[in-house]
Structure formats: C-alpha cells, structure tokens
Amino acid sequence: MLFSYKAIDQTNVKREGTVEAANIDAAIATVQKRGYTVISIDPVEEKDDLLNFEITWFQRISNKEVVILSRQLATLFDAQVSALRIFRLLGTEAENPQMQKVLNDIADDLQAGSSISRSLAAHPDVFSDFYINMIRAGEESGSLEQSFGYLADYLDRTYQIVTKAKNALVYPAFVVGVFVLVMGLMLTMVIPRISQILIDSGQELPVYTKIVIAISTVLTDYIGIILALASIGGVFLWRFLKTPVGQRAFDELKITIPYIGDLFQKLYLARICDNLATMLQSGISMVQALEVTAEVVDNAVFKEILQNTLVEVKGGRSFADSIAEYPEIPGVLSQMAKVGEETGNLSEIMKTLATFYVREVNNAVDTLIGLIEPVMIVLLGVGVGTLLASVLMPIYNMTASI
C-alpha cells in the first residue's frame, strides 16, 4: 500500500515523499528509519482510471534500464564511491521519474542505516529475489563491487538473449497479423459481391470456390457472434492461464512444441545454468541458489524440477544425481554437473554450460529467422493463390462460355 508523508529531518528541513508499506504503522516505522520525524502520513488513493494506467505504463522501469543501472552501480562501486553517494547521484541523473523515485527512496533508506540488500528488497517490482540475494551475498562476503559486476554481466547476457528471442518472433507475428487482416477484409467485403455474380451465372462452381463462398457467408452473416465468442473465449483463456494449472499447461506446451519447444528449453536451461553459476561464484550455497533460481526461471515445469531437486539436495543427495531423473534435463548437464561436484568446481562447470546453451539459443534463433521468410512466402502464396483461383477460375469459365 502506498502512503504519502510529511516530515522533518534532523536539520529541521521539511521532507515530503511516499513509501510502500503493508499498513500505516509499518509506513511510520519506515519513515522514522530514514531519520525523519513524522508530521503527517496518509494512504494514497490509487486511481484506476485509464489516464493513470497509461502514465504508470509509460513510466514503468524496463529490464533494459535495470541492466544499465547495474552496469553503472558496478562501475561506481569498483571506483570505491560510497553507496549513499552512488544512489543519490544516479537518482539525480535518472530520466525515468519512476526510476528516480526508486533510487531516491533507496538512498533515504541507506541514510537511515539500512543495508543495500534490504533497501533494494523494498522494491520487488524492480529488483528480483535473485538480484537481492546476490547483493546480500556480496555484503556478507565484503565483495559488493564484485557482486554488482557479476550482476551486470549476468543481466546483460540475459537481456541480450531474451531480446533476440523476442525479436525473432516479431516479424512472423506482424506478417501473420497483416495476412489475417487482409484475408478477413477480402472474405467479408470483396468475396460476397463477387460470389453473388458467380451464383447468378448458374454454372457449376469448383469445390474450393464453394468452400471460400461458404466461409465468406459465415463470416459476413455471423461476424458479430464470431467476434463475441472469440472475445469471451479469449477472456476465459486469459483467466485460465493465470491459474496454476493453466500456467503449468502453457509452460509445458512451450517446451514441447516441435522446434520452438527446443528453443524455449535451451533458453530456460541457459537461464538455470547462468543463475547457478553466478550465485555459486558469489559464495551462495547450493540450497539458496536452487531456491532463488526456482523462483526466477519463469517456467512452471522447470520450477517444479528445481523445487524437487532442492528437497533432495537438502536430504543429502547430490545435485547431479537429483536432476538426472528428469527427461527435461539433458544428460550432458547432469554428467557435467557430476564432474563439477567431484572436482569442487561446479560454478565453472555451470558457467561453461550456460555459455554453451546461450550459443545454442543464438544458433536456433538464427536458424528460425532464416526459415521464417521462405515458409511465410510459401504460406502466403498458397493462401492468396487459393483465394484468387477460387474467384478468377469461375469468372474465366463464365467469360469463355459467352
């Protein structure tokens, strides 16, 4: 819940701002931790109107901004600049008002004596559990600048690979969208006028022409019902995918679709290996690394695998033997992990595997992009050719018989 406060600091300077807290008592405690004396504090009424939604959407903090911020933090911490000064400086220079607010709130918490990890944890919509655990490990080991360096490199790799995978799907989605739109306009606006001429001619129409006319008639006569049913179906599907069962089914579908599933599977394996490598290199235990990785893997199937593996590792079983039981985990991963555990070099093995799977994802994306264009050309050609042939052939026959 968001609270707006007015307070004075230790130098009797008036301060105003907002804090996120579960209730008003927690909000007062948060403001007091910053060294302020509370004058007034009230809950902020959250507006649900469209304008407020649009403003929040355009001011939200993107993954790219978090990547850039992490790189700046790594550089400044490496230069031995104090944490408070770093967040004050970056908060002043931030272009996104939302990012500016977050960094200033973190600086206020640091000034009040809070640790960096606890200050970051107050903004879970910006900093993930993985991010916070990495920083907490850096604080405990006294290598905070190294942790920010690991984070900057990790987030940069993750951002690049996810962005490349998403961009590979933009072109086919655009082409398919335009194709569906054009075909819809043809079937609802052009074909009905031509079909009446063909029917009135009295000639025997080809089967494919009858099919096209039938589709056009259904779309024209029942377009309202079709759109309503599609909208209702879309809402039910969206709500189903928000449930644990629906999310699990969708995530399982993503990794089992031919070819595309292989791409998604390698993407998640790259994320798992990279997360584990980064956390293990920072001195985080395998148990904690598995807990965090399970939460940030972003796939219900692999999350379940990691949670089951976590239970077995807590019970004394090795990581390699635990993951070897699951068909979604390639044999090379479990075998390499076993070698890493035996040699005490598991973090480096995970790093090597992460590099391998990232390269595999890049190759799969490049291959997909190379296949998309010819496949799209063939499909579009067949679709448009069938539509035109179903109209032009009867017209040609009718003209030839005159």
Description of the structure:
Mean pLDDT is 82; it is low at 47-58. Helix 16 (331-343) runs antiparallel to helix 17. The protein has 3 domains: 2-46, Ubiquitin-like (UB roll), CATH 3.10.20; 62-155, Type II secretion system (T2SS), domain F (Receptor-associated Protein, Up-down Bundle); 161-402, Type II secretion system (T2SS), domain F (Receptor-associated Protein, Up-down Bundle). It has helices at 24-33, 50-59, 63-78, 83-93, 97-111, 116-121, 129-141, 144-200, 207-221, 223-242, 244-254, 260-281, 286-296, 300-314, 319-323, 331-343, 346-400, and strands at residues 2-8, 14-20, 37-43. With 402 residues, the protein is mostly helical. It has 17 helices and 3 strands. Helices cover 76% and strands 5% of the residues. The termini are far apart. The chain has a 3-stranded antiparallel β-sheet with strand order 2-1-3, with helices on one face.
